[in-house]
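Today's session is about reading a structure prediction critically. Students often jump straight to the picture, but the first step is always the sequence itself: look for stretches that repeat, for charged clusters, for runs of hydrophobic residues. Only then move on to the predicted structure, which in these notes is written as discrete structure tokens rather than atom positions. Here is the chain we will use throughout the hour.
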Amino acid sequence: MYQSSLGALSLLLLLSGAGADMQTGPVDFAPQVQLSRLNGKIEITHEKDKDEHAARRLPLLRSGARVRVLSGSAAFDSDCHVTVRAGEGATFHFTSVPPEGSRAGTLRIAAGPSGFQAVDVSVGDRKFRLRSGGALVITSEWPGELTVRSEGYGVQFAPGSLNKDGTVQSSPRRMAPGEAIPAAVPEVMAFENAAADAARLSISGADGDALIVSASRSATPAERSREEQARRVISVWPVVSQRTAELVLEKFGAPDLAISDRLVWYDNGAWKITTVYRDQREHLDVLEQTIGYRVPQEKVPALAKLDLALRISRDNRSLSAVSESEETNILALNLADEVVRGKRSPEDARAFYLKTVVQWNAGKSSPYMKNLLFR
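Below is the predicted structure for this chain, in token form.
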């Protein structure tokens, strides 16, 4: 891992002309943030003045940058072991403060007005979820430990983190403003992940107030290899499954997993997981797409009455739709959310689903089939 970190850091030094050396102990430099993965398109603006050199500096971002994910998803890393992951519609703002006197350098990450779309932040062994108005201030006080302080009421201590006693946090907990907790990190301060390949980034708007950064369609050798493997797998599939897989491959590129009975993508676009099956015993639809979503226990019977192919995970942390296409999955999940919130009855939602699909097959579009309206 650290060899790849050194390679990423060397790349950034060449791109920006400056960088943070690998260090142990407290952060006595201004933390930096880089774009490490982009699957879609992002917008980068700066709060005060136009940054004429921002395009040349990428994938390194300047302190004060505001990032909005226009499509797909993106991941960012700092050289003090902080990662940020944001999906379509999410926004965040970060500032990096250099050390002053005995005070170490700090990194502040704040969620923008993104509605229901949260920003996920990992700090060493801790996981957080930021919603509008929430911010984290990360400071290094001791070797191998960061202090994370919350600001505002939009910060959640997310499941999957380690508690101080070594147990795993099993449920989300809202953090109080000003609450501070420690996070264990490696003593060596460096980027843990490689920077996004600058050659694969398409940048526009360099002369304006905002940069629009898109991921290039050209695949790396590893991605081409995975895509070739996926196409070999689906070559013996039934025609319906093969056509569905081809459409998803065209949109999202190489899958993360390709085995005899399925292709799987993780964190692709608005989806937590996308799976194309060779076949489904219970029905002919082969495209399953999953989002992070909790269904109140009292609403489970209502979703059953909706009579669509919806699946609630055993831990009730995700909701999946299975259908013939991404559009009908989006429609099913939008209506499931309206049933959960009491906006529609299951019967009304079911009738709306059937009517909308008939219109869609006749060439008429619907906003219910374009985006997840509740995200």
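Discussion point for the tutorial: The radius of gyration is 22 Å.
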